[in-house]
Amino acid sequence: MLGLKLPTDPRWVNLAEKSIEEILIDHAYCEQKAASTCISLIIQFPEKEKMVETLMPIVTEEWGHFRMVLKELKKRGYSLGPKRIDKYVVELMKLERKGNKLERQLMDKLLISALIEARSCERFRLLSESISDLELRDFYRELMISEAGHYRTFLDLAKEYMPEDVVKVRWQEMLDAEAEIITNLEIRGDRMH
User: What is the reported pTM?
Assistant: First the structure.
């Protein structure tokens, strides 16, 4: 469904379950970054009216998810803690081509966002199906359903501003690169990605 070429190693859920506090903290920052990314795209490309209109509700939704994760942290007696570096996202950001072709750069930004959303959705699904904490199963199922369409939204926006065949080729390139990134990253239960 998500088009990812490499599924998450099943051991990730077992490791995440042993690090619930860390996974929730990392997840909170992921939701914050998702909202910030949408805001950044709106600021960088305000003339892209369809994109702006499409991303505004996603900003609200992602910020709402951030608040939900904060509430879950507080309920469990945890606090947000310091910001972390997401090596997965850092590596994905290297796929963005810089230069004077703004449409191409926008496409890359949108496709990177689609990849992040797809991987997050996959991980939410794994948590909703496999984690022993029944409250967290429900929590992640709700988030998975809510976020399931986001990756598709970013793909559709890329096709809005670049020819579909160009987007499809680039998407396949990025899916291949994302699989390579996942292969080379250490499996960590304290990180969402």
Answer: 0.95
